[in-house]
TrEMBL record:
One Pfam family matching this protein: Thioredoxin_4
Protein name: DSBA oxidoreductase
Thioredoxin domain location: 89-302
Keywords assigned: Signal
Organism: Candidatus Sulfotelmatobacter kueseliae
PANTHER family reported for this sequence: THIOL:DISULFIDE INTERCHANGE PROTEIN DSBC (PTHR35272:SF3), THIOL:DISULFIDE INTERCHANGE PROTEIN DSBC-RELATED (PTHR35272)
């Protein structure tokens, strides 16, 4: 889906077909966007009708791409509106976003990145205060690697062995897993996050076995059998599956998962897997770039706190 998303960006910027083999479905136009929050009154938010027309004009010639507008809000940067859209092809679904300029006549794609003498410190401070997921490695480690993951995400499954290798190669790093289920595009991801949260609170050792086995059997899990499958996986990981299933249904578990999602949103996570290496965001983790990630970890370990 990274290829799809990159192609979508190319299409918006250049109007070229590029590698995307996709097209348009319709949403109900005309619904006004949510009103901006206090302090964001200067942001001119486009309506859903305008966004839908833009997408229709851009992608309407492609019969295989469908979309659903999932959000229109102030971007957190003066004057910009952030639009999020769920894009879908036969290959799968992807949450995408772009930004509308204050003039309402231009859109920007890509990420808004941090800037300054120590650009990654703000995200690092947010993460240090908010991380609650299962952890391993020294508590006083010079490097903290935080993964925001979705157990139904195929890209997370592909990345898991390389992330494990990255962590193992740096014994002085602390690794933290935070649930970030993409419930808008994955139909059992939230349930899996609930189970993972309960397993993690019951046993850190069992947690790593649980997510590894869930990824391994990901293609066998459906929205209809998810409770049965995850209960069995929890049993196999060394905790009592029935207790985990009961825990997963509790309101406090939902609150834990929701807090993890909000933490991810606070540091601008929009896709999975997303890693942070001492606050430096590594989105769309690519296993083929493992040497680069290793260099980032080694570099971070040498930086002054």
């Amino acid at each position: 889906m990274r290829i799809l998303l990159n192609s979508i960006c190319v299409l918006i910027l250049a109007g070229s077909l590029a590698a995307a083999q996709t097209t348009a479905a319709k949403v109900t136009p005309g619904k006004p966007a949510a009103s901006p929050a206090a302090g964001d009154a200067a942001v001119n938010l486009p309506t859903e009708a305008t966004v839908d027309s833009f997408l229709q004009q851009t992608f309407g010639y492609q019969p295989d791409l469908t979309w659903r507008i999932s959000g229109i809000r102030p971007a957190g940067v003066a004057g910009l509106a952030e639009v999020t859209v769920v894009l879908a092809t036969q290959q799968g679904q992807q949450l995408s976003r772009f930004y509308v300029a204050p003039d309402g006549e231009h859109a920007l794609t890509g990420d808004i990145i941090p800037f300054g003498a120590r650009p990654f410190d703000p995200a690092m401070k947010i993460l240090e205060k908010g991380i609650t997921g299962p952890q391993r490695g020294p508590k006083d480690a010079p490097v903290i690697i935080v993964e925001f993951g979705d157990l139904q995400c195929p890209a997370c499954k592909r990345a898991q062995p390389e992330i494990e290798a990255l962590v193992a190669a740096e014994p002085n790093a602390r690794f933290v897993f935070q649930n970030f289920p993409l419930g808008q595009v994955h139909n059992w991801a939230v349930k899996a996050a609930d189970y993972a949260d309960c397993v993690g609170r019951a046993s850190s050792d069992a947690f790593w076995k649980f997510i590894a086995k869930t990824y391994e059997t990901q293609s066998d899990i459906t929205a209809e059998n998810v409770d049965e499958k995850l209960t069995a996986i929890a049993d196999g990981a060394g905790v009592k599956g029935a207790d985990i299933a009961a825990c997963a249904a509790k309101p406090e578990t939902k609150a834990h998962v929701d807090a993890s999602i909000e933490l991810g949103k606070a540091v601008d996570v929009t896709s999975t897997p997303t890693l942070f290496i001492n606050g430096r965001k590594v989105a769309s983790f690519d296993p083929q770039m493992k040497e680069l990630y290793k260099s980032l970890v080694e570099f971070a370990a040498k930086q002054p706190k």
